[in-house]
Amino acid sequence: MNLYEGSLLKLDWEVQLIQMQKQYKIISPGGSVLDLGCAPGAWLQVACQNLGPLEKGGVVVGIDTKKVKVPSVHCDSRVKTVCADVMTLPREQVRVLSPKQKGFSVVLSDMCPSVSGITSRDAALSAELGMRALDLAVGKSAVDHTGNTTSEEVQSDSSGSAPDIDRLLKPGGHLIIKLLESEDIKEFNQICKPLFRKASWLRPKATRSCSREIYLICQGLR
Q1: Model pTM greater than 0.85?
Q2: Where does the record place the Ribosomal RNA methyltransferase FtsJ domain (predicted)?
Q3: pLDDT at residue 104 tops 90
């Protein structure tokens, strides 16, 4: 029986993650997954299914500004949701939701602004959400360092906390960020390539032809 047939939410978002999982093997059995912008819950289902049997362990934590009920199918006790604004939620409050408070093996960001129809505005808001996801995943000091700040600024930003405390993504972990295609997303490449073993762009086959959505796939946090 196909793992994904019959009961998953029939949404483009769900099909997109299925394709990315099949192609990149982002989620491993027993892994720990943070899903930013988890409404309506399709990615929670796909993530949980790829954790393997319940005895394998693992956890999926979804965060969204909307209150999201954990789907009754293809989700189990390893899935939990939090209603909060990712843009203002302290990373320490997210870390305590991870196994042994040691962070996550995967961070997924499907966050997207309410589309206004003004291309430049929508792209800028999408980039802002994506940068927040990146900041939470790898830490502010890492983002600042690869964003062409001075060495003095980097030392000042990172002096108060060790890199592994500042970031929510574990070493070797994977990150997926949804963005809207624009000039604004070029910066993500510059930041992510030095931080990850591999960083690439993907436009899943399930993406509608009229959509500007594109995904940044980052594998193996250094």
Answers
A1: yes
A2: 17-220
A3: yes
